[in-house]
Design a protein that fits this description.
Layout (H helix, E strand, L loop, with lengths): L2 H42 L12 H5 L5 H13 L13 H14 L6 H11 L6 E3 L5 E3 L7
Helix pairs in contact: 3-5
Amino acid sequence: MLASDKVGLEMRTHIQGTALLIMLLLFFWYALNVSTTIISKALTDNNGAIAAVAKTKDEALYEPLNQTEVAVLQAKLLDAGYELGPLDGILGDKTRAAIEAAKTALGLEKQPDRLLLLALIDGQEGQDSNVVGSSGNVNSNTDSTDH
């Protein structure tokens, strides 16, 4: 191997190494920009995965009921005289029909299910098989056609 060939080979190796280093730096710069954007958005955006935003009382009312809450609602509806099937925590057709009937009886037709649950919990303290209506009147709900 001639000296000029050796210098050319070394120079080509250095150029290739430099090009590889530049490509790696560009890749890391891009990755850093993307991750910074994602993290910044997550920390500042209301819908971010990291930032937890406290819900207002009104927003919390419209959250879907979880299985335990559905089971409590079913028990309260059964105590109030509505027929709805098994107390299983599943929001089925019979439970939905009982919810709608109770909402109608309480004047809560357009209100969320959670508000009905709260009304039944508040209204049934000390009551047996009755629902206290929004006017304070006690309504007996024993109609068996509500299933």
